[in-house]
Write a structure and sequence with these properties.
Layout (H helix, E strand, L loop, with lengths): L4 H24 L8 E2 L10 H18 L2 E6 L4 H9 L24 E8 L4 E2 L3 H14 L2 E2 L14 E3 L6 H4 L6 H7 L18
Parallel strand pairs: 1-2
Antiparallel strand pairs: 2-3, 3-4, 3-6, 5-6
Helix pairs in contact: 2-4
């Protein structure tokens, strides 16, 4: 028996509605990242709110200029995690990745983000020193401190490192170098170090 035009249209409308609802439901389960940012491990939630907000603003401007996002690979660290980073190239295999020992790191204070240029079309980290420099100069123009200016890290410096502490000093925020975490807690912010997992990806 042939369906009338009205019956067919109604059925099609219901089917379309179900399809759209299903698509929306699936989308709601996917991680949502701010424009310009790729943060699959939710590491930005571990840094201070002002650091996070300014990093997102910079990443949006970076995406507008380059078409690339910034993929976050590190946020706040505990003193123990920073000590592990310090050991690399000293008492552990590998090349040195930091000159900030133990608690004396802006990562411990929740005021540093490590991130790399990321191509959403290929799903890979990409770009040379010039691409990192674009992000670094945007960050500096906002008042941040960029690791690409740090000596001792090779031609690009510590190009994927972004600190946010305008007008602040390590000595003020961390009067006890052996216990910066207590200082952070006293300021009412401790971040979420349990979510602090380095995002490791080989740079092609």
């Amino acid at each position: 028996m042939a369906l009338s035009w009205y019956t067919w249209a109604a059925a099609a409308g219901v089917g379309l509605g179900v399809a759209l609802l299903t698509r929306k439901s699936k989308a709601s389960l996917s991680p949502l990242f701010p424009s310009g940012v790729e943060d699959p491990k939710d590491l930005l939630s571990t840094v201070t709110p002002d650091t996070r907000a300014n990093f997102i603003t910079m990443a949006r401007r970076f995406e507008q200029q380059t078409g690339l996002k910034l993929k976050v690979r590190s946020g706040r660290r505990t003193c123990a995690e920073q000590a592990q980073q310090w050991a690399i190239g000293r008492t552990a295999p590998g090349q040195k990745v930091t000159f900030a020992k133990g608690c004396m790191s802006w990562h411990v204070l929740g005021r540093a983000v490590d991130a790399d240029p990321y191509d959403p079309d290929t799903g890979r980290v990409t770009g040379g020193c010039d691409v990192y420099t674009t992000a670094g100069e945007l960050w500096e123009a906002m008042g941040g401190k960029w690791g690409g200016r740090f000596p001792g890290f090779g031609a690009c410096g510590d190009a994927g490192h972004f600190q946010w502490h305008p007008g602040l000093s390590m000595e003020t925020l961390c009067p006890d170098p052996d216990d910066c975490e207590a200082a952070v807690a006293a300021q009412g912010f401790l971040g979420r170090p349990e979510r602090q997992v380095e995002w490791v990806e080989e740079n092609p």
